[in-house]
Amino acid sequence: MAGETVKLTVGQALVRYLINQRAEIDGDRVQLFAGVFGIFGHGNVTCLSEALEQVQDVLPTWRGQNEQSMALAAIGYGKAKLRRQIMIATTSVGPGATNMVTAAGVAHANRLPVLLISGDTYNNRLPDPVLQQVEHYGEPSTTVNDSFRAVSRYWDRITHPAQILSSLPQAVATMLDPADCGPAFIGLPQDIQEIAYDYPVEFFEPTLWTIPRPRPDRDQVAAAVELLKTAKKPLIISGGGVRYSGAEEVLARFAESRGIPMAETIAGKGAVVHDHPAYVGALGIEGTDAAKELAEGADVVIAVGTRLQDFTTGSWTTFACDSQFININAARFDARKHRSLPVVGDALECLNELDAALGDWVCDAARMEEARDLYANWNQMLDEGQAPTNAAVPSYAQVIAVVNKAARPEDTMVTAAGGLPGETVKNWRVKAPNSFDCEFGFSCMGYEIAGAWGHAIAKEGTGVPIVMVGDGSYMMMNSDIYSSVLSGHKMIVVVCDNGGFGVINRLQTGMGVPGFNNLLKDSRVLNKDNPRHVDFAKHAEAMGAYARHCDSLADLEAAMDWAQTTDATTVISINSDAYTWTPGGADWYVGVPEINDRESIREARKGQEAFRAKQRQGV
């Protein structure tokens, strides 16, 4: 009834609001907020946890081991749900909050929704300075939670109970807006969480949220059609926005029926299967030679749902200087990059309108024939590189081939920073749509296992996440192996141990610097000739997981078959080559000293200068 109120604390009101938000997925109405990852401290344990405890059967709270990894798990969940459901991560004040900032950067860079709720110091300042408070002379209202401003799409600190009436709906709207999607942050001072307030009852009524599908401007579509009809050698780039829009099938049909080869970004990988007739692989630094050659000759490029990161564009050297872009994106900021002809709107709606307006136009069949020949050559090269050899230590490509073979279509491959993104993007052959998650927007070491825990919760037993992680990332963040064991969410973790940070060692030595502080043998260690290595299998077993170390590809094949039969998280380790990499892809703009006495560095500088001369200018 209008005018009726209910007295609740701020913490209780916030939780009651969240559990009454709904989303619709494939015709089913579900809770928009599916759960909470929480570590409680003095900033959120006495009030927010009190509210969460009362609704734990409706809004489950999962206990993490690290605030950053909890939020990464929430991000993995959001990816698995294609941004249609959201997880919450809550932390106390101080180091708990700052631990979560890195994860907020992952969500912000990748345009992914997650609700971050952090405790804060006292609004009244009476007990200042409190435990874990960082004081700012001359700026007493500044706390560590202000660090989230740089990595949040929506940021608010609640300083009065009534403020959540306007703040929470705006936070939700931001997270569900395809043009503005990203993390929302709410700071809760401890003395505000406890205050009781008379809230309007209608604030807590169940609310159904839908993700908007903005249609493009007709003039923009007409201009795109006019430009595309001039194309002799067009190319499509499929980005992550295609998947989040649900436009995979529409784009695939568009590419095939119009005779336009379709490349993809790293975030877009998995929109189509590996053997789709229009598909030519990923584009860019970690892409296929087929996509690279097609991009270099393209006169019109149709970019769909991508922010055109440097790993896609080869630092803007992959395209001819006179190539023209049609950029379809829900975000105006992305749609206008690099002198593109923008088509601003939802990918699915834009593609449908573009397709209808094209009439009977079809690209010359020679373009697709060229693409299929190039892609066939690429796949032959992959087959050769993945084939077993007599080498003492297998390459990434060989390991990936074995894991890929064992993966079921319903399983999801998860990886992130280091050498595995490039190697999986090139070598992993997607068997089913939306079964590939490579976090490379923020390239966050440690996402792999944490993000896979989120995927495991989202999958609810329909397949398992298969994590591919290097020894460096494993050492940086592995505690969610234990989280998954505790919660009963199975994943399979394959640890490729190449003795350090292999891919960054490749970049370092490739630019003329001797190997230094990346591989264990090149670091300041007690025994450089035989540094002590971690026994990853024993380490995982100590956290309650099943585990096995493999000495060969045959061992790995048997271990993967076994891992598919276990009833809990299973970790497999195998030594891998730190020096053998799958060839192909574009070059990368990196800093190289302009002056140096070392000949190898001077030569690398010359190479960079020649590379930069090919760069497309403009932003």
Folded structure, characterized:
The chain starts with a strand and ends in a 7-residue tail after the last helix. Helix 9 (248-258) packs parallel to helix 13 and helix 10 (289-296) runs antiparallel to helix 14. The chain is α/β, with parallel strands linked by helices and 619 residues long. Strand 16 (324-329), helix 12 (332-335) and strand 17 (341-344) form a beta-alpha-beta unit. It is globular, with a radius of gyration of 25 Å. It has three domains: 5-209, Rossmann fold (3-Layer(aba) Sandwich); 218-377, TPP-binding domain (Rossmann fold), CATH 3.40.50.1220; 388-575, Thiamin diphosphate (ThDP)-binding fold, Pyr/PP domains (Rossmann fold, 3-Layer(aba) Sandwich). The strands form five sheets. It has a six-stranded parallel β-sheet, with helices on both faces. The longest helix is centred in the middle third of the chain and has 22 residues, at 365-386. The protein contains 23 helices and 23 strands.
Structural topology:
Layout: E1 5-9, H1 10-19, E2 21-25, E3 28-31, E4 33-38, H2 48-54, E5 61-63, H3 67-80, E6 86-91, H4 95-109, E7 114-120, E8 154-157, H5 164-176, E9 183-189, H6 190-193, E10 196-200, E11 207-209, H7 218-228, E12 235-238, H8 240-245, H9 248-258, E13 262-264, E14 279-282, H10 289-296, E15 300-304, H11 310-313, E16 324-329, H12 332-335, E17 341-344, H13 347-358, H14 365-386, H15 396-406, E18 412-415, H16 420-427, E19 436-438, H17 447-459, E20 465-470, H18 471-476, H19 480-487, E21 492-497, H20 502-510, H21 536-542, E22 546-550, H22 553-563, E23 570-575, H23 599-612
Parallel strand pairs: 2-11, 4-5, 4-6, 6-7, 7-9, 8-9, 12-13, 12-15, 13-14, 15-16, 16-17, 18-19, 18-20, 20-21, 21-23, 22-23
Antiparallel strand pairs: 1-10, 2-3
